[in-house]
Amino acid sequence: MKNRTEIRKLIRSKRQSLSALEQTLAAEEVLQQLKSVPEINNAQRVAIYLSADGEIDTHPIIEYFWQQGKEVALPVLHPFSKGHLLFLRYTPDSPMCENKFNIPEPVLNQTEVIPVSQLDIVFTPLVAFDKTGNRMGMGGGYYDRTLEKWFKTGQGPTPMGIAHNCQQIEKVPVEPWDVPLPVIITPDNIWLRETNILG
Known about the structure:
The chain has helices spanning 4-16, 20-34, 38-42, 59-67, 142-146, 148-153; strands at residues 45-47, 71-77, 85-89, 96-98, 104-106, 121-123, 128-129, 135-136, 158-162, 183-185, 190-192, 195-196. By secondary structure, the chain is an alpha/beta fold. The strands form 3 sheets. It has an 8-stranded mixed β-sheet with strand order 3-2-1-6-9-10-11-12. A two-stranded antiparallel sheet has the order 4-5. A two-stranded antiparallel ribbon has the order 7-8.
């Protein structure tokens, strides 16, 4: 089995090598899949991220959420608590800046913060996943910390993942702090933890 560093390198390379047409089609297919998930349809406040590094394009999903009247939040690196995230309300007019990873995020404004406990769903970036819902991120642990309460108690927003088909691997090497995802949506499937509801 490859180690986590090797897996990240391999899957990121696969993701980045997808053509513009393949990326566009994948984003459209994921959006169609997403529309059939009841928890998403019923959600009022949804945290998501701006795609980068060959990830499934999240912009069409965000536009769809706005059209549906959902409140959208984006992650912001916590200014005082290292390794943690805040989630800020995101609208077409939100002022943006780049964080230390050169990822766009809303300009920090306390009045726009949405507490994690008030979110219904947190879409969680991932590099690789397996059919049992295990997820491998970039290694910073930001989302594992954010979702720790949900993982231990079942309370808080439901985490979900979206990914290209090529990001699935046989088995993700798991660490004790890794938070699995109950739902992962790909262009071809909606994976529920321990099962696959669409074939």
